[in-house]
Structures are given as structure tokens and as C-alpha cells.
Amino acid sequence: MSRQESLSSATKEDKAEPPVTPLSHYLWVLAALLALLALSAGTALIKLGTWNTVINLLIAVMKALLVISVFMHETEARKLTRLTSALGFIWLAMLIGLALFDFLTRSVVPAPWG
What is the DSSP annotation of 63-100? Predict the structure, then answer.
């Protein structure tokens, strides 16, 4: 194979059309996001104490994972891109966890003038 033929075959592979996602796939994701939105709004109206925050954070994570996997095409991405996204989620979870740990372990200090 000559150099010219190898270059022309490489450019043909680079110009390959990406797979087209059917419209029904996006409609299912829309329905799932709307259902999660309704669930999130519904749990906000129920008095569950601290569990409201936990449940709504879990719902938010599910919505974010849906958006990342479908609209950002993470399922079709390279391994390095998927690893970077996963590490971003882990980093965010660590930051939220550390902030929550700091908030929950503080003791109440009365004001010196009161």
C-alpha cells in the first residue's frame, strides 16, 4: 500500500458519520427527566426532615447521570473521557462530603455578649 493510499483511507475513516440517535431515545429520556422532576417536587412537599435533602440529592444525581450519558454521549466516548467524567463526580462528592462533615461536626458556641 502506498503512502497516498494510506492517507486517503485515514481521511475516509476520520470523516465517517457518527451514529444517529433515534428520536424515541430522546423522548424516553425526556419522560424520565420529567418523572424525576415530579418526584423531586413531590418529595419537597412531604415533611421527611433530613431525608428530604438526601432524597433530593439522589434524584439530582440521577438526573445529572441521565444528562451526561445521553446528551453528552458519554456512553460512546473514549475511555479517557469517561474516566475524567467519573473523577469529576468523585471529586464533587468528596467536596460535598467534606463540607457536610465540617458543618455537622461544629459545636454551637454562644455569643460572648449574650
Answer: HHHHHHHHTS-GGGS-HHHHHHHHHHHHHHHHHHHHHH
**Which residues make Cβ contacts (< 8 Å) with residue 81, sequence separation at least 6?**
74
Cα separation, 27 vs 18, in Å, equals 20
CB 63 within 8 A of CB 39: no
Question: Cα–Cα distance between 26 and 70 in angstroms, integer?
Answer: 8
pLDDT at 8: 58
On whether the pTM is more than 0.70, the answer is no
CB 84 within 8 A of CB 72: no
Least confident stretch, 32-41, 74-83, 87-96? 74-83
C-alpha dist (Å) from residue 83 to 80, 88, 89, 90:
5, 9, 10, 10
pLDDT tens string 30-65: 999 999 999 999 998 999 888 998 899 899 989 998
